[in-house]
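so my prof wants the structure for this chain in the tokens format not the other one, which i didnt know existed until like an hour ago. anyway here's the sequence
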Amino acid sequence: MLAAPVGLNTPTKSFKIINIMRTVFLFLTIILFISACQKPKTQANASADAKRYPFKGKVISVDRDGHKAKIEHDAIPGYMEGMTMDFPIHADFVWDVLKPGADIRAELVVDSAASDPYFLDSLVITSANDPDKQGPPIDNNFAQIGQPVPDFKLTNQDGKPISMKDYKGKALAITFIYAECPLPDYCIKMSTNFSSLVPNLAADQQLKDKVRLLSISFDPVNDTPEKLKLYGGAYLGQGVKPDFTIWQLAVGKDTEVRKIADFFGLRYEVDASDKTQINHSLRTAVIGPDGKVIKIYAGNEWTPVGLLKDLQAALGAVPK
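here's what i got, hopefully its the right format
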């Protein structure tokens, strides 16, 4: 029987090589599978069908690695009685300041389509219980009321610089938004409310020159003045040249925006699981002609009609 030529594999050697390759492939597949299973769970944005409830409670314990906290919370009207339980929290910034004993306000988001069927959003620490971690003045009594708003340097939708000095002698409402916000009860509602006030103010001879609205973007990376002009124009109405005399939209350097946001207690941070989205709380403030804070809304419960009354009160048009 002739021997196999030197350099050529015999059938036995070929089978061994194939078996080795199969073993290596199987081993790599198992590693990839285990790695995939060990990836941390990420949370998608809340769906359009998500329900939101105002939430208040006291932190009992904090699980930073698990991104959750055990909270003794008040009754949530229309949803559940007060109790103590664990709540997922997706905003990364809270883990540097959230401590046992802290009092918090937030929104409980209930979303059957999400990875976490419920979680806390727009969390605000109202009493930190940590003297080394005192943030901006945020409490139920709003320490900012009666205080002058710090001056700021921003750029409006027309590319022109603006500051608090531009609003001296006028009643001013300030809110915070970013153009890509997908939530109907957040930035979309803030902008809808502001834009719906514009025609009423423009038609009032006593108010059109005395009242101003300002939306400040906390997304300076993406919200250019040009983008904000298109954004605001869409709310003011299609087919009409937008008039930004009453309502302006502005953006600035991150340090400048954070200065004014911190003053009002607004919290915002890029979503760790979706860099195109920003987790944020809400703040809408009424400023008097003297530049001092008269009223602050912490959530989205205010209405255009109510805000108009607040602005009139700031001017002394109606009793406060």
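also thought this was worth mentioning. Residues 11-37 form the longest helix (27 residues).
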